[in-house]
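Sequence in, structure out. Go.
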Amino acid sequence: AGGKLSAATMRRVEEFVAERLEGALRLDELADVACVSKFHFSRLFKRTTGLTPHRYVIRCRVRRAQLLLRDPTYNDYSIAGVAVRCGFVDQSHLGRHFKAQLGVTPAEYRRG
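Output:
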């Protein structure tokens, strides 16, 4: 497919990631969704998105954390609780990636 994932395949991968963001996502699972080998998937995915699969998943997790941190129905969740709901190992794992992507900590972001 010209060295990139088709739009339909990319949509399947995006949906798979979104549905399983809270848990572990393995490269072989993503490759299976795309019906290609792990090696081939990694190359095609990077050409398609500009990101490695790992970086893409981290970005999705940070975006989900942004939504939860600003959602009033999640105000009672600790930042550690939000981290786990987004698939991060713990609060510091979320904090490191959150600050790297957005320039603020989750707590600063929540305060607005």
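Check: The longest helix spans residues 53-70. The two ends are 43 Å apart (CA to CA).
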